[in-house]
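Ticket reopened. Same input as before:
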Amino acid sequence: MSTVDISLTDVAASLALIALAIGVSYWRRAELEQDLAVAVLRSFVQLTAIGYVIQAIFDSDSLWLVAALLAVMVGFGAFTARSRAKAVPGVLGPLVLALTAAAAITLGLVLALGVFEAEPRYLVPVGGMVIGNSMTAAAVALNRLADEVHGQAGLIEAMLALGANSGQAARGLVTRSLRSGMIPLIDSTKTTGIVFFPGTMVGMLVAGAEPIDAVRLQLILLWVLLGSVAIAALISVSLGYRGFFTPAHQLKEPPA
Amino acid sequence: MLRDLSLAIEPGATAVLGPSGCGKSTLLRLLNRLADPDEGRVRFHGEDVRELDPLELRRRAVLVPQLPAPLPGTVADNVRFGPALHGEQADPARPLELAGLDPEYADRDAGRLSVGEQQRVMLARALALDPEVLLLDEPTAALDERSKHGVEETLAALPCSTVLVTHERAQAERLAQRVFEMAA
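Engineering reply: fixed in the latest deploy. New output:
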């Protein structure tokens, strides 16, 4: 594969666009100047740090280190998703399980099918994408779940009152939450190549790869992501709804 | 919310009378274990309800909510829901009749009925479980005078025991053999 060299001067030059963004914010009094500065600083520090970490892992060629890095990503991802789905009680456990399963199953499958080789060069970026997309899908699905339970508490309790267990009473909303977790990626997959160019393809094209190779890799990744997002959304809502119920099939927060 | 309450409910028709906000609905929810008391005990036929299977208890002591909460689907879907949960196929005709609804309603969309008709669907849905006791939470509060009268006639003719919660003394006295009064 061809390589590209990007100097720090090149990176610094792209700050011109940040200056433009800050200018827009200042001019229209959007008061985003400080946020933009923080975003620039954090992206620089975080990406540089992860760059060195990944370099070190590539140099060591150790799959254990890959697993450790992915575990850290799962941890961060679960905490981030929890902060977005605060209204779901006891959600951290389901999230850790959902992200771990999504990463393990998808990476396991692509390795078993021989799509990628078991090398850090593939596992780290693919694992990161899987965990990141799974995190977003799980957070969206759980958020929807909390809204549904809140909005439909009367109906849920009516079902419980007829002898439904909590799983039966929550079935409809669990399905709707699963859908809302999966739909954004399905929609963006439908429009890919027309409305936007996905990142992997852009990266490969810039790095000098043949367009058809870039497209094939991108297809693999999109389809892998669809699978992982389904796993993450399914596990997080299937376990997450339990947080709203007691073991005696009661709603913890009864309808107002 | 509920304090110093001691109550023995016999078979037959019982009413609990009290102003709104005094905890009448909470009392009903304790009886079928949709909620648990912080202190004290609720017994059903002498057994602490926490020792019973909550799902079986709720099929024997069925709550009819104050506001109709129809499930998506037809009237028949609603009536069949409870029995289907434990693998029974119910014929909606009989419960509908007991609830004062023409069996022709079976195929209609439950969500599009009037509030009075929906309240009768709630009743039919509960009766389909063949309960020992119905827990009725202000069953006519959402209804106009005419439908209220009709629903009261239906309630008076129910084949099972009832615990009726109401803020209306006249209704309590019309429908129940025993009336308990709760203070605010």
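Residues 13-181 of chain B form a domain with the Rossmann fold fold (CATH 3.40.50.300). The radius of gyration of chain B is 16 Å. Please confirm and we'll close it.
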